[in-house]
Amino acid sequence: MTTRYSHFLSAFFCMFLGGLLVWHLLLPDRDRSDVENRTLAQFPEFSWEDLKDGSFTKGVEEYFADQFPLRDQWTGLKARTEQLLGKREFNGVYLCGDALIAKVEPPKDGLEEKNLSYVSRLAESAEAPVYLGLIPSAAEIWRDRLPRGAESWDQAAFIARAAELEGVEPIDFLTALRDHAGERTWEGIFYRTDHHWTTLGAYYGHAALMEALGRGEEVPEPETVRARDLPVSNGFQGTLYSQSGIHWLEPDSIEFWVEESGLTVTSWRDGTPKEAGLYDYDYLGKKDKYSAFLGGNQPLCVVKNPEGKGKLLVIRDSYADSLAPFLALHFEEVHLLDPRYYRYSAAKYAEDNGLDAIAVVYSVPNFITDRNLVLLTQS
User: Fold this and answer.
1) What is the predicted pLDDT for the residue at 33?
2) Angle, to 10 degrees, between the axis of helix 320-327 and the axis of helix 199-212?
3) What residue segments make up the domains of the chain, in order of their start?
């Protein structure tokens, strides 16, 4: 390489970096990335204290990384390049053919056992019977699709451990989903770009819950429930799409099965009851389309069906958003309580509202990492 050519490359590289800096300074800062579905870092406020402890420089680094010109395109290009080099794990997400599957890390600090003990203590204090249903993620149900040698924590073993809890009845979501693991009818049992189960997966989940409650004979065939114009969206790009940087897979479809007519839905998002619905169609025009089920995260939601039988409390995570419409087919009242936002006694809530049973329904990855389940011990 000649000296002149070396100087040319150095000058070109400096011009390239300088151009990016100027471009960055001219562009307005973005508050949020819809592709990554998260808030972007803003330029930190300066103080001598922050400069001394390094937090200011760290904030500046995060700001430039998040506000980098064409960031979304660069992250996608990075993932595509790594794929061509043979990489199969992208920021904790495995690329498995036409699907993305989140890796499940081992729990830390014995939190999984603590959370099981909190469920046991709920069963001791509650007057209504308590059921526990742990929903395995795609990493367990589709384990055969993971790249060879891919690591993912053994969820099945933990579910078997949870089924042994004294005084708590198990809900066998594992078998229900395994029995349909290879099913490609309609949209499949898990989304390909998101960590949640699909409407079909939630249907099989509700069948397992009804079986545990001794009401399995009430579950209709899926074809009889799925009687609407479907899908409601063909453009769902979920959390794994955002997390991995893999932006070339086909979007998922979202389906609503259960009709809303005859049902009453009340939501307590800010502490006061407000009329809501099984589905919030506004979210279908946003990035977070899964939140169209019940309108997304909320402390408490109650679905009433005057033709149903019995009253059920579901202590849940977001998987229950797409499960709730099916439960509304069977119960007079379904109360959905999210301990991440509801800060009071679940046992007392069940007693005060005359509920017949309590079902703790959580995905395994959320159950082994959620530090809010200690609230179940409140009396």
Assistant:
1) 54
2) 60
3) 15-69, 99-377
